[in-house]
Amino acid sequence: MRFIADIVNADKMSGRSRKYKIIFSPQKFYACEMVLEEEGVFGDVTCDEWSFYLLPLDEDIISMELPEFFRDYFLEGDHRWINPVARALQLLNSLYGPFGRTYGIGRSAKMSYELWRDLEEESESEGQGRKPEIGHVFLMDRDTDYVTALCSQVVYEGLVDDTFRIKCGSVDFGPEVTSSDKSIKVLLNSQDKVFSQIRNEHFSSVFGFLSQKSRNLQAQYDRRRGMDIKQMKDFVSQELKGLKQEHRLLSLHIGACESIMKKKTKQDFQETIKAEHSLLEGFDIRESTSFIEEHIDRQVSPIESLRLMCLLSITENGLVPKDYRSLKTQYLQSYGPEHLLTFHNLKRMGLLTEQSAGETLTAVESKVSKLVTDRAAGKITDAFSSLARKSNFRAISKKLGLIPRLDGEYDLKMPRDMAYVFGGAYVPLSCKIIEQVLERRGWQGLEEVVRLLNGNEFSASDSTVEDNPACEAQRVVLAVFLGGCTFSEIAALRFLGKERGGEGGEGKGREGKGSARLSWGMHGDGSGSVAAAPQHCPASPTGCKFIFLTTAITNSARMMEATIEAKA
Amino acid sequence: MSRVRADEEEYWHSSKFRAFTFDDEDDELSQLKESKRAVNSLRDIVDDDDDDLERVSWSGEPVGSISWSIKETASGSTSSLDGRDSSLQKGSSSYAALPKQASSYSLSSLFKGRNKLSSFQSLSDALTDTGVKNYAPELRRPKAEYKDYSSDWSPKDTVRRMQRGKVCSLERFRSLQDKLVLLDEAVAGHDGNVITAVLIFLKRTLRREILFRELEVRQVALCHLIHFLRETGEQKFLLDLLRFLDRTEEVALSQYREHLNIQDVEKRREFLKGCIGLPFSAEDTSHIQDHYTLLERQIIIEANDRHLEMAGQSELFRKYPRKASILNMPLVTTLFYSCFYHYTEAEGMFSSPTNLKKTFKIPDKQYVLTALAARAKLRAWGDVDALLTTKNWLGYTKKKAPIGFHRVVEILQRNNAPVQVLQEYVRLVEDVETRLNLATKYKCHDVVIETYRDLKDRVQLTAYKSKVERGSAEEEKIQNILSNMQIRWKN
Question: Where does the record say this protein resides (chain B) (predicted)?
Fold first, then answer.
């Protein structure tokens, strides 16, 4: 804002007169207007809002493209993005009819829900009367599950995101992938025939798939030998284009795989994964700690080091003070003293904390409060309780069985459960919660888990929507992630959807994809022209299809970057 | 209610359109109802889409100050009120057909007209009729009344309207009580944008201490204010707030943060010096101290080395020109730099690695790792050897690596160390399997052969024979071992 105001003022000074227009998206903030007013350019600039809430990235992913949500809410405690989320819900509601049941966990989830209901009551007319097409909505705060977001991703789409950064559903493959001297921008979604088949697979199965695919392709090309003229003509006119297209895609993804492999070998990927897994399981903590230490000492990467430290802290409920001090010191020495601020941020968010035994805490607290006045005591309690916000990961993990018992090798090609997205070592907590709540149609029986997750759960149902499990819409679940969601989580829930669909008798085959899809048209103002039609899903009575709404696609690196104090 | 309505009518009264209907004075009562209706319907329009109207109030200006003469009449004698009322309402009704335009016309056009007094003769006549002077004492009222018009909402409604992105004047909330209710409503509404807007208003209209005191018990609002101050860069206000809250550590950190905006190194150094005394935790104070010392050293080193480089007399600098200045680099990078360019300097020199190590209490592990990387880059294998050699008290020498020899090998290999050098360290890798892997990978044949011999693994050794060059010394060595009758092979 100030920047704009400066431009305007500079123009004014030099006697130029222009027209200025600022377009705020998704909404205008009062604080921005204040700045304009203060800078004396309020009247000179016309403002507009572009109420842009939903960006469909794929047939089942909608992003709000608000990566700021994460830092603004979870670090600064600013509620400014709650309104856009509520409006996005309202928009979806008006497009797809009333939602049957709503569940959620987390404070911002609850607030978004309340604000949305509020908005809904005001404009009762719009969404009503539409046939409901979304049966369940699940809202979740990112801070319910930091662990999953901090893990290295090993499903293909996640790896591509971690390595090359997918932006708004497209990625720039550099020269090392394209094996030419220019980079190519590629759209990654279900339209890409090759990609759609490997995106959710564990990386280790991708190679096999790609080589099989290229053999097939070769065979199809080879058919042209021994053709007569007419067959050749048909071949050229009908198949060749498709084959060429497929060929192009295949070579791209093979190139991407190679490049990923190269980079990962250089970074001791295997060792990192091993360390991560032992952190998740809670074994060999000492070893992992020294692994991290070495990581820092070698200046491998500031983001990676930070990520591993956070993972250690969350899984262990904070670091032992001695470790905390020494890791912090070494980190500052390796990556720069200004990261002192970063550590402070992480502490505030509860991502990287120092252990303090609960008993001593209360003891100190009561001792102190005896000594000082009431008001001060209240303050101290506040301070302590914010410090004491614990992640309780170990207990939750045990309760929900997040670490699968291993009997023999985990077959990553034929996954048994959602743990496959982390090489069979860990079921993503966020997805497990969603699964459990959907299964129980509420939070009953999960009280202990909820307590460990710091509460703020809710569930509600829209009485106007009949609760008919046979109804098609009941199988569509809208998963809303506030503060970002990762491709691993998306893959895990897609798997869950298929799996539940498969129980109806289709077996575990990949063909069991629920075919309920939201097809998106381009929409201008968000109403009207969207052709939304979940097609029906014939066989499976229990199948479900997840649709994702997230404030942004995230991964560990993006999250860490958001907490780092930027160099001005 | 009728009071309010009258006020609204005032508004229309003050619009210039009134002039057109002025001579329509008779038949008051019959038209009264109709015009009321018209006004009411007008109000609907206004209510639904009153942005234009309110913009007038928001920008605030001449509304109150000049419209005195017109408005005063309203509060005057009832008789004159009645008379005026009807005419006014007729004005409104006739005007109801073109609502939007009127509102955007706003009051200022009226004032222009009035000042000239020519084109609006009739209007001023009307005003003189009702006797302006009598009501002069109530000069300021109209503004308040006008405000009522747009913002007579309860705090809750105000918040709601703001959430929907409508402009609302908050000026009406004048008592502390009202302000706080408004703030609490905003917080309950979960919209950060509105909370911030209310806070901006409170910040403008309340003394700091009072605002701070109230925010102390309103954590959510407090977060918003802090974030807002940070975003708009009102550092001083922010520090005052944090001090008031006794959040001394945050005060210190906020001040420290400012150093990021200082580009000039000398100024930055000075600033950091000032930071040392800030109320950080004991641990952080030492970090800040280190930060300051580090920058101080870097400035000295940089000045020296730039000079050296320019002079072009040092071979090292000529051969490996510096890629970037060392200023503002992390400590480890600085250490690497000094191991690279100043390895042999005496401890007394600021730029010597040992001095850095001592000053900043760099752990052994870290030091070896960094020095190793730097010396290996220069291919100074002798230094590498010396670095990893320790003497015990009997004078025996022993190779030791606090980072593990597999790391040493990795670093050396990355710097293209010759096999002879590499071999020596591969041999020292403790874990047999890792040793074999590394040795095979980097073609340290001797190590592979010896390891297999020690493992008494004839099969593997025989297999390895085919991998070495025919007729080489290695092949011969394998042959010798295999034919050694004293070894008890395990297979």
Answer: Cytoplasmic vesicle; Early endosome; Late endosome
